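WARN no homologs supplied; continuing
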Amino acid sequence: MTNRERNIQINFRVNEQERDLIYKKMHESDVKNLGAYLRKMAIDGQIFKLDNSPLREMNTNMSRFSSNLNQIAKRVNSTDTIYTEDIQEMKEMMVKIWQSQKYILSKLP
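OK structure emitted
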């Protein structure tokens, strides 16, 4: 045991419900090794698993908005005309972006 990086052992006892809860939280955090999970929790106290899919969706919507805005700007510069449909489309895209942002902010601690 002297050749191990971690040569000090710490033991503690739990009941069945506590064990099940520990394994459930370990599974939710995508940690496969119980020792690594318990060590991480004992040292840092918390493990966060972030879902970035709402951010990716918002980035996609913002990219579409930017592309559409550039296309509209080109058309306005060449024809000196802006269409009601263009303005409505931009408003709808902004609503999607704001909804994504509100969702993301509502999920933050």
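Residues 18 and 24 are 10 Å apart (CA to CA).
OK
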